[in-house]
Design brief:
There is one protein chain. The protein has one helix at about 1-20; strands spanning about 25-35, 40-50, 60-70, 75-80, 85-90, 95-100, 110. About 10% of the residues are buried. The protein has a four-stranded antiparallel beta sheet with strand order 1-2-5-4, with no helix packed on it. A three-stranded antiparallel beta sheet has the order 3-6-7, with no helix packed on it. The chain has one helix and seven strands, in the order αβββββββ.
Amino acid sequence: MIVIFVVSIILAVFLWQYVFLVYEVKINKKIFTEKEKDECVEISVYPINSFGMKIPFKEIKAMFVIEEGADAIEIIENDFESGKFKFQWKDKKNKVTIKIITDFSLFPIIEKM
């Protein structure tokens, strides 16, 4: 009985430390074309565990700040709760710099396009 309890505690600690704890934050950038619009870009932020896999049942809140080139894009979606930012290019000649701030990042993530 005690052995089962100890093994259960060790398994729970292992799962918490290596599977469900945020080790790193990754950015997923998708570029696609909508039917009636030009090229759109969707940036999403998701947590990574120590095995390098997406953490199940967890989303990260992220704040997206346009540092440079705000006049070159049109924002379609800026969802703080789910960590998604979607925009469409107005003028693709200009460069856009987006700063991504999350609770799990030590420093903000700078994404240049």
